[in-house]
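Researcher: We're reviewing a set of sequences before deciding which ones to prioritize for further study. For each one, I'd like a predicted 3D structure that I can look through quickly. This is Phosphoserine phosphatase. If possible, include the structure in C-alpha cell form so it fits the rest of the review sheet.
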Amino acid sequence: MVNLHKPGLVVFDMDSTLITIECIDEIADLAGCKPEVSAITAAAMRGEIDFGQSLLQRVAVLAGVPETALTQIFEPIPFTTGAFELVRWFQQLGWKTAVISGGFTWFAERVQQELGLDAAVANRLEVENNQLTGVVIPPLVDAQAKASHLVRLASQWSIPAEQVIAVGDGANDIPMLQAAGLGVAFHAKPTLYPYADLIVKPADLMVLKHQLVERFGQPLRQ
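Model: Here's the predicted structure for Phosphoserine phosphatase, in C-alpha cell form for your review sheet.
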C-alpha cells in the first residue's frame, strides 16, 4: 500500500493527462488531416487497435510538417487544471516525478522543464531539413515500454514498487498502471477502469490529491 509519509515516485502520462490535448492530433491539424488521425487516436486509446502500429501509421501522414510549426501547439502549453499544484505537492513530500508518454519528446521535454519533473520519456520524431519525416526513431515507446521505463526509474531511484503511483487515461497505460503500486485512471476511457485502483473522473489533477489524502491519510511533510 502506498505510504505518503515516505518518498516515492509518481509517473504521469502526458497527452490528455498532464496536458489537455493529444499532441499528435494537433500536429495532424497542421498537416490538414486531423479528423482521420483523431479517429485512429481515439480507437487506440479505447484499446480497439494496437497503439504501436497505430502510432507509426499516424506519424507517417505528418511528413512535411515544419518542426517550427509545433510551437503553435504549445504557446501556451495547455496544462491540465491542477498540474502544477499536484506536482509541487508530490515534490514537497520528497517524491520523484516523471512523465512517460507514448507521445513525443518535443512536447514531453517542454512539459518536464515547465513542471520541474525529474525525468521525461517519450518517442522521438525524426526531423530532416526542419521538417518531420513521418518516422519515429526507434525504440518505440509503446504500452509495454511505458511500464518498463516505470520499473527502470523506480529501480534507478531505489523506490519499491508499492511506492510508485502511475497516472494515465487510455488503454496504452494499462501495463504502466499494473506495474505501479497504485494505478490511477484520470479522466480516462472506461477501458482503463478495471485496471485502476483509483478513478478520478473530473479533469482536475488536484482531485487526485484529495482522493489520495482521503484514502491514505494526510502526509506529515508538506
